[in-house]
Amino acid sequence: MSELYPPESLRMGFVGHLEELRRRILLSLAGYVLVCCVLFGYGRVLLRWLELPAHGLLPELVFLSPTEAFSAYVQVVLLAALIFSFPFFLYQLWAFLAPALSASLRRVILAWLLFAVVCFAGGLAFTFLILLPAALNFLLNFGVGIARPVISLSKYVSFVSVFLLMGGMVFEIPVLVGMLTEAGVIDSQRLRAGRRYAILFNITAAAILTPTQDVVNLLLFSAPMIVLYEIGILLAMWVERRRAQRNLREGVADDK
């Protein structure tokens, strides 16, 4: 019976963890709403920034219904708030995990989360500066002589939003590989052995995610994923080497 009904202290501990998780989620939502409110007055500036990848390709964006301009305005504010809130979300995750971790493990997790922020920002920049202009250039020039491009504001914002979020998340591949290696789930040898399958998977995923069917844009999508996988292998090797050095130090300390 004691296994089915744990002591009151354990039940309270579990409830306390759930309450802390609930509090962190509410703080994340509150922070996101606050950022949305702050950015709402800058929606027009954000829209102009979002139009930069299409500069010189589109004469202007149009809206086809009375509510479309407002809905696109809200959508770009929500997107920007999500991007700016990403570090805060990760901080709340770290704050939830930190009390259960040792001091050394706490520093390790914090370093990985900071690296995740850097990778996310790098993915956004790469997508905004390289992928989006290339994709728009191909798509819009492909239609020359077939029809005149009249792109609605909401369709453009949705297109760019998906690209940006996808690019930011794809650049988290090294972080995911590094943390799984840190946890002992995978290792560099297994990653190297599965390299050819990873390349095939990355090309297939890029072909599915790429809105165009040309080889240039396929390579623009798949090449970063392959490079990020290789970076993940290097990170896995670094984690394993650091773990071996730590184990050696602990073994020497135990002998003394």
Total number of helices: 9
Shape designation = flat
Helix content: over 70%
Structural class: mainly alpha
Q: Tell me the span between the first and last alpha carbons.
A: 45 Å
The whole-angstrom Rg is: 23 Å
Largest pleated sheet: none
Would you identify the regions where 5 or more consecutive residues have pLDDT less than 50?
1-12
Strand content: under 5%
Count of β-strands: 0
Mean pLDDT: 82
- Secondary-structure element sequence? HHHHHHHHH
What does this structure look like?
The chain is an all-alpha fold and 256 residues long. 78% of the residues lie in helices and 0% in strands. The chain has helices spanning 8-39, 43-50, 68-97, 103-142, 153-170, 173-182, 188-193, 195-209, 215-255. Helix 4 (103-142) packs across helix 5 and helix 6 runs parallel beside helix 9 (215-255). The longest helix is centred in the last third of the chain and has 41 residues, at 215-255. The radius of gyration is 23 Å and the shape is flat.
